Q: What sequence folds into this?
């Protein structure tokens, strides 16, 4: 995936006539360069959009390297290349995972 791209995948389970419940899961990821970061609060990501995109943080956020190693939030810096995993909540994009794809150049 090139920097600045967004990918979305969805899983839908329809409600059957037997009364089974409906399950909908939407996973969205965006990749770009960190322009501003306040751990636990907000992250601005430079993508293909004209302006950096603002993401809020959920209650539980996991920070990992591209090989899955858990890291501290303090390892995320301005100009870090990252992929964010988020859910849409109204107009907000709420992050639950930040994956560092490459250190700053």
A:
């Amino acid at each position: 995936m090139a920097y600045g791209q967004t990918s979305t995948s969805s899983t839908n389970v329809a409600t059957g006539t037997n009364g089974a419940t409906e399950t909908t899961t939407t996973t969205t990821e965006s990749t770009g360069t960190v322009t501003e970061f306040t751990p636990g609060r907000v992250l601005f990501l430079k993508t293909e959009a004209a302006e950096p995109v603002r993401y809020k943080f959920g209650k539980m956020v996991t920070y990992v390297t591209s090989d899955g190693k858990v890291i501290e939030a303090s390892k995320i810096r301005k100009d870090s290349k990252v992929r964010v995993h988020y859910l849409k909540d109204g107009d907000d994009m709420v992050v639950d995972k930040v994956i560092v794809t490459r250190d700053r150049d």
